[in-house]
Amino acid sequence: MVGLRAKIDTGASTSALHATEISEFKRNGERWVRFTAHLGTLVQRRHRCEAPLVARKIIKSSNGQAQTRYVVRTLLALGDHLWPVEFTLTCRKTMRYRLLLGSKALMDGKWLVDPARTYVQEKPQTLTSPGAP
Q: Which of 17, 91, 100, 102 has its CA 20 to 30 A from that of 77?
């Protein structure tokens, strides 16, 4: 697991993850996407990923430009809470935060946002998968 600072954006419906080298492919007749996720805050870590393609979605940015993005689903850990979140894949290299959490992810996770506070959540404990050492 990699710690990653996220921008909470209740004005954005969809969550976004900084990704590059994005390509679609087929696996067993299903559509998948392969991409490099850029994780870490102070030290950048690149992680090559593959995930089933959930959808393609047209996203309008805050400056009004529309962009078609791939959508994947993965588990997100915030504190001791873990839930599935859909992320669009996009280049966020010019953004301060590599991960944006939109309102749908916050509602699905049953989170309440206090805009007057920052960094109120403890760092997550290391999670292990079943069968992992």
A: 91
